[in-house]
Each structure stands twice: as C-alpha cells, then as structure tokens.
C-alpha cells in the first residue's frame, strides 16, 4: 500500500509540516505501507496557467508530482487553515491535475495555530475535492494549536493520545483504500 503524505504549506516557519512529519513517523513505525512525503515546499511550483493535460511541454517536476499522486493508493493531505481557507499552493496543485484525483481516497488533517484545528478550512477543501471526483475519507484529524502540541520534528507532546487518534483516522483511510481495490477487481 502506497500512501502519499501531501504537505500543503509552502510558508517559511510553517507548522502544519510538523503534523506531516508525525504521520510519516506513525505510518513507518506501524508498518502501514510505503510512505511517500510529497512536500509542496520542495517543488517551488509557479502558479499554473493550465491543467497538466493541456500543457504542451510540462516541466519534469510537474510530471514527477503527477506520477507520485497517480501511484498513490491513498493520500493523507495535511493542510493549514489560512483565514478560513486552504493555502493557494494546495489549490494550485489540485487544479493542476484532474483524473489523478478521481476516486482517490484522501484523508484530511487540518491544522491551525488557534483553538479550532482548521475546522473552517474543511468545507471549502472538501467541496473542491468533491467537484473533481476525489473520495474524501469521512474521518478527520483536526489539530488545534499545533505549535504547542507538536515539535518541529513532528513529535507530539502527548504521543499516546496522538497515536490513539491517528489509529482511528488512518484505519479509515486504509479501509477506503481496501474498499477501492475490491471494487476495481
């Protein structure tokens, strides 16, 4: 099972990447499949003017991003909430691809510096993913006050509690991946 962790923030000093690192460690520690960290900050993408399928000669890093999303059995998307919405870096890559997202199980972990854990970003993000045919996993993983709960290496202050929540969350993603495989047989 190949799970892509999509770390959506490209800001300097970003805190949501802490949660991406936590899940990378969690998935590896529990042998839950192959983990591929897709960090949008490493791609340094421009604002795309067109979908990939209509680009005459896309850059190699764009094709690499497409391949990694395409090869994923499921995606664990980690996004911060910026003023009630999700970052433009994420919208940019959602709109870059189309068929690659369709029927792809996507689990959402939302992050905020405030007390609500990115709850406001969920509505707009789920709607965008739904419009392109992605399968949004019904479980969510909100992380309030991320800067106080996870260190820069992704280690949570309360590992037992984080792992308990993560198990339920990841079990839903794995269930959806397994169900999709069965439906495709």
UniProtKB/TrEMBL annotation:
It holds the Pfam family FMN_red. Coiled coil: none annotated. GO terms for molecular function: FMN binding; oxidoreductase activity. One of its GO terms (cellular component) is cytosol. Residues 1-145 form the NADPH-dependent FMN reductase-like domain. InterPro entries: Flavoprotein-like_sf, FMN_Rdtase-like_dom, NAD(P)H-dep_reductase. This is NADPH-dependent oxidoreductase. It comes from Pedobacter psychroterrae. The lineage of its organism: Bacteria, Pseudomonadati, Bacteroidota, Sphingobacteriia, Sphingobacteriales.
């Amino acid at each position: 099972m190949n799970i892509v962790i999509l770390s959506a923030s490209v800001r300097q000093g970003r805190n949501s990447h802490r949660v991406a690192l936590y899940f990378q460690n969690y998935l590896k520690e529990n042998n839950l499949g192959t983990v591929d960290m897709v960090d949008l900050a490493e791609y340094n993408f421009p604002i795309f003017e067109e979908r990939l399928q209509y680009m005459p000669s896309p850059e190699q890093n764009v094709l690499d991003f497409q391949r990694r999303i395409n090869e994923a059995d499921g995606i664990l998307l980690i996004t911060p909430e910026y003023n009630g919405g999700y970052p433009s870096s994420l919208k940019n890559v959602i709109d870059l691809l189309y068929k690659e997202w369709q029927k792809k199980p996507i689990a959402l972990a939302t992050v905020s510096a405030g007390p609500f854990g990115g709850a406001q970003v969920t509505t707009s993000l789920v709607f965008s993913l739904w419009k392109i045919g992605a399968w949004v996993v019904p479980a969510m993983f909100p992380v309030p006050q991320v800067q106080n709960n996870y260190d820069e290496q992704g280690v949570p202050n309360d590992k037992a509690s984080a792992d308990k929540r993560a198990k339920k969350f990841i079990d839903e993603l794995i269930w959806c991946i397994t169900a999709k495989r069965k439906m495709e047989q």
